[in-house]
Amino acid sequence: MKILMVTMAMNIGGAETHILELCRELNRRGHEITLASFGGVYADELTALGVKNVTLPLHTKRPGAVLTAYHGLERLIRDGNFDLVHAHARIPAFICGLLHDRMKFRFVTTAHLNFSMNALWRKISRWGERVMAVSDDIADYLVKEYGYPREKIYLTINGIDTAKFSPEIPFDALLASHGLKKERRRLVYISRLDADRADPAYRLIEIAPKIAESFPDTDILVVGGGTEFETLCAMADKVNKDAGYPLVTMTGAVSNINEYASAADVFIGVSRSALEAMSAAKPVIVAGGQGAIGIFDETKTAPAVDTNFCCRGFDLADGETLFGWIADCLNRPADELAAMGEYNRAFVMEHYTAGRMAADYEEMYRAAMAAPVPFRGKADVVVSGYYGFGNMGDESLLDVIAATLAEEIPGVKIAALTRHPKADARRTGLRCVPRFSPQAVGTIAGVKLLISGGGSLLQDSTSRRSLKYYAGVLGTAEMFGVKSYIYANGIGPVRDRSNRKLTVKVVDRASEVSVRDADSADELRRLGVTREKIRVTADPAFLIRPYDEHRLARTMERIGVKDGFFAVSLRPPVQKNTDISPTHTADEAVEACVKITEKYGLVPFVIPMQTVQDGEICRYFTEKYNERMRGTGRTALLYTPENAPELIGVLSKAEFVIGMRLHAIIFASSAEVPVVGLEYDPKVASMMKALGQPFVVDLGTSSDIGGEVLSCVERIMEDREGIGRALAARAAEMRQRCREDLATARGLIQ
To answer: What is the pLDDT of residue 334?
Structure first.
C-alpha cells in the first residue's frame, strides 16, 4: 500500500514517537510510506530507513503557513498516486480534510489525545473516513464531542519497539556524560515539559530534598524539554545548591530515550514513556499532567489501558502522594523490584508491540479502502429504503449493501435516499440525498441502477403511504429508463386493494426481483404478480461482519457485559395489531425471564433496536424485571448498541436471544445463537421458518406468552450446541444467496 503520512513535526514527543514506530513497522511490512511534516529528529531517523520525507510548514496555524502547506500537499497528493492519506493532529487533518472535499482521495486520521475544545475548533476540526483512537476514552470523546460514528472508530495501542527498549540497553556512557555513578540508584522522569504536562516534574523537584534525606543513594533525572524547562532548571539548581551535589539532573530534549529508560531503577511518567520503561523491565509509577494512578501492577491494568496510560479523569498526584509511591518502590528488596520489572515487560510484550499497532492500522486501512468511493459527478447506483430513521436493522442494510457492492464492483459510485442526508452521509460515507426532494428525482435520473431494499418496503401494515412512496421511487426509475432491482425484500402484508394493484405493477415491471424468504415469494404470487423469475434470497444483514475478538473484548468491557446472559429485544406492536398490548407483552416477558434466571442463573441484556420506538417498552421491561429480582444480586442491563457489527459480536456471547425485532433475530442467527421469535408481524414467523427454527410465540393468539417463551427456552437449553450448528449451516446458505444478489447487481450495472 502506498501511504502518505501527514503530521505537524517529528521532534521528540509521544505522538511523534507513535508515528515513528508506525512508519518504521509499516515500512518493514513492505508498505511504501511518504512522510509530510515540518521535519525533526524522528523525520531524519525515518529518512535513514528509506522513508521519503517532504518538508512543509504543517506545525503552525499561521494563515500564510497553512496556505503554503495546503498547496504543497495538493501537489504531493495529485502527483503521488497514494492509496491513502493518513493525517495526525488537528492542523494537518484540517488541511487534508479541505483537500479531501475537492480531490476525493481515501482519507483517515488518528486521534492521539483529547484536544482542548471550543466552538471554533469543533466546527473546523476534520476527521477522516475512518479514525484510529489510541484509547477507549478518546473514542468516547470523539463520539460525544464531534458526533463521530463509533463504528468507524478503530482502537490501537502505543506500539513499543521492545528490542530498542530493553533491559539489555547499555547506559554507562550516558551516566558518564552527566557525571553520575552507576552504583547509585536513579529515579527517572520522562515527559515533554510543557505547562499542561509538567506538574509531576514540579512535584518531583519539590520533594527531591525529602527523597535525598530518606534515600541518600538516589539521583533524580528529569528528561525532556518544553516551555517549563527553564523554570524547572532554576528550581533544580536551587535544590542542588542546597544539597551540595547534583541531586537533580535536567537533561533537556534528547533522542536516546531508551538509554534513560534502561538507566532507571524506578521510572515516573505516563503514556508512551511509561510503556517504554515497562518494556525496559522497570518498575513504573504512572503519573502525569492529567492525573495519576500510582505503581503499575495487575490491579491497575483497567484504568491504565482505558486511558492509554495517561490517567485522564484521575486526580493529580501531590508531592506527598508521589513521595509515598517512590518510597514504596525504593524500600522494596531488589528481587521484588526485578519481578515488578519482569511483569511489566511481559505485559508490553503481550499487549503493546509495534507489530500489533501496525496490524491495527492495516485493518483500518483495508476497511477504508474497501468502503464505497467518495466521488464527484453522477452516481452509478441509488439505494432506496427505510434509511435515516434510527432503526438499527434498516441502517445496517444500507451499510452492508453499499459495502458489499463496493467490494463486488471496485470503484462503483453509490448514492442513497435518506431521511437525514447530512447525518447519514457522515455515518455512511455515501452521498446521501433527501428522500422527498427534487434532488432525489434528479439523482435517480442519472444512474445505471436503482436498488429498492432491503427490508419490508412493499407492505401497508405500518402505513399506506409508505408503500406508495417506494412504488413511486420504482416508478421514477422506470420513467427515466433506469434499471430497477427490488433487492431482498420482505413482502406484505398488503391489505389495501389499490396498494395490491400497485405492488403487482411495480414488481412485474422491475428489472430484477429477489425476496428474503419463500413466504414473500408466495405472497407476490397471491397478489397476482405474473413475472416468471422471483428469486428467493436472504436478508443482506447476513453479510455483516461482526467485530473481531480483540475489538469485541474492549466493547464488552466498555458496556459492562458479563458471562451468563441472554438478550431480549422488544418493540411496541404496529398500530393495526391493536389486540396486542405492549405492557402485557413486556409483563409476560418479565415473568418468563425471572423464571429463566432462577432456573439457569442467566440475566437479561435488553436491547432497543430502534431507540425512539423501542426505548419505552425496553425500559419498562428492565425496571419491572429489576423490581422482581431486587435483593438477589441479579440485574437486567439496558444496552443501546452503537452499530450492527458491535451488536452481532455481543449477541455471539449470549446463551440465546428472545426477539421481536426481525433484525435481532437475523443478527443472532448470523452469530449462530438460538432465538425465540416473538411474532407480532408475519415476517417474524417467515424468518424463523427460513432459519428452520420452531421457537416462535404468536403474540396475537397466545394465551400464555410467558409460559410459551419459557418452554421454548427450555427446549433450546436442552440442545443449544446442536441448534447452534444448525444455525451456522443455515447462515452459511443465507450468505451464499446474498452473494448471488451482488452478482446480479453487478450484471445490471455493468
So the answer is: 95
